[in-house]
Design brief:
Elements: H1 4-15, E1 20-24, E2 27-31, H2 36-55, E3 58-61, E4 65-67, E5 74-75, E6 79-83, E7 88-90, E8 93-95, E9 101-105, H3 111-124, E10 129-134, E11 139-147, E12 150-158, E13 163-165, E14 171-173
Parallel strand pairs: 4-8, 9-10
Antiparallel strand pairs: 1-2, 3-6, 4-5, 6-9, 7-8, 10-11, 11-12, 13-14
InterPro entries: Nuclease_put_TT1808 (IPR012296), Restrct_endonuc-II-like (IPR011335), Uma2 (IPR008538)
Protein name: Putative restriction endonuclease domain-containing protein
Domain Putative restriction endonuclease: 17-165
Amino acid sequence: MAGPLEERFRSVRDLLPEYRVETARGRIVVNESGTWQHNTLVFQMVCRLIGPAVERGWEIWPNITVYLGQNADRYVPDLAVVPRRPRMRMEHAVYGDATVLLVDIVTAGSVYEDYHVKPGEYAQAGVPLYLLVDPLQCTVKLFGRPEGGKYGTEILVTGAEPLVLPAPWEFAVETGELW
């Protein structure tokens, strides 16, 4: 049964479908769609991930809510890579542990949430890989191996270094042209 925050979340999401509606620490957060620079980085990440995703029969979804548990926050990453027909909470929400990879592009207003809040919640929900693309610092950070409510590995690459995604990906994301 949905609680009051969940009901308000659904109402706001239904009222503002063109916005990214999330819940974070007991509050509803409405984010505008990204700038052209943000959307360019989203596009560049799609271009890098599409080949390996298609080869493995996965799909890349923008603007899907990630269900992290009954009382957990609801986030909408920039991209969610999922297997075909992943386990869904509702038509607009995929279970976190049913994803293959979540990707967020860091913005000035999302730094704290992206680096300090989301990794813990994603790890607790079993999201296998969480990738942060940070144009403010020209870095890419990968969180992996969720265990005990936190990620067991964190890999940070800077500048033009390639980032090797572990199994089931097993390929390098070229980051040099992102910046």
